[in-house]
């Protein structure tokens, strides 16, 4: 075969190899583009928020009498304060999808009770322990049902045990099962939290589950018919998880955790959720939202009146908590009163006073919200941030909000945008260079109060949405 013919035959082969190589490189680049870069401490600080997933249960995160509480919640708030960033909390009780989100880089931290296992350490960074606990078997109290009672690990074989899928409890059962001649019937359950499984044991829907002892002890106050005496492990370290490679962020959190656990604040937080006698009182309360779905004794009243302004009743509840902590007798130092903390001149407009009922107070407050909303509808061209404007107006008065809009417009900012525009000028309206500006008509304003008022209500509303079901809004 001549050299020319050989080259002619070789060219298509070379071209095919070239195309294949290009396709492989293209696919590699696409995969690399899909992967999110590792987020380190400097990125968190630059972003200004720490993205965390936690789970809701009787100890980690819950609402009690309208107040957001929980061991993990308070620890994470303290961490965010240390980092000087905002805590952006997502609630997810599906452990598998939570780990997936962390691996993808959608969040920075899993802030929950995570056992540090060998398999997990290969995939993720872990902090130093924030607490310790043993794994215990949850079963019906043996004095009520002695048949099938499990005293020790060897008696687990042949038993059916339900556990959250992907949990360390499932991993522990597999290790125990592999040591015997008979298998344990392990039932991994998707998208379920261990406390829900505990309730199923207590209601005799299933026979057994496993929980961390500190969580089990708290739930025993709620379900006195469960037994938690059978230990399945020695005390285990419980920690937070971060994405693999976030070594600087992990190191900073570890240094903070080591110091924080020596403080009085940590001891108080730990006692509050695992040692306090008030735990039983909270769990039994009808306003323990995790169990009851209720926020306050005024839920029905707020559901009724929220409809008049097309609000979610949980948003109105968040406002009422901020105003009065659900106390109808609350009085402020400036004379505001009742659940909605109406100022006397506002209350007079709606024909209510300090002797009016809680219902009349709420009705008047909602009418005032509706009045302010109508004014804002005529004022705002872009109504994207209308809720923020409305909440701030309810707190400090519409005049000061209009002043802040005029200051924003004068300084080249968008007067219809709340964050980073109008909120900035409202926040600074206590400074002479701002409240003495010629465009300001209503003078001095203690702007920090409405600024934080908006943030706190919207933040509490997020928590209420996590706990109180939407379908209750129509009940």
From TrEMBL:
Compartments in which it is found: Cell outer membrane
Gene3D superfamilies named in the record: 1.10.530.10, Periplasmic binding protein-like II
Keyword Signal annotated: yes
Pfam families: SBP_bac_3 (PF00497), SLT (PF01464)
Broad class of the protein's primary localization: membrane
Coiled-coil annotated spans: none
Residues covered by the Solute-binding protein family 3/N-terminal domain: 49-277
Family to which this protein belongs: Belongs to the transglycosylase Slt family.
Name of the protein in question: Transporter substrate-binding domain-containing protein
Organism: Marinifilum caeruleilacunae
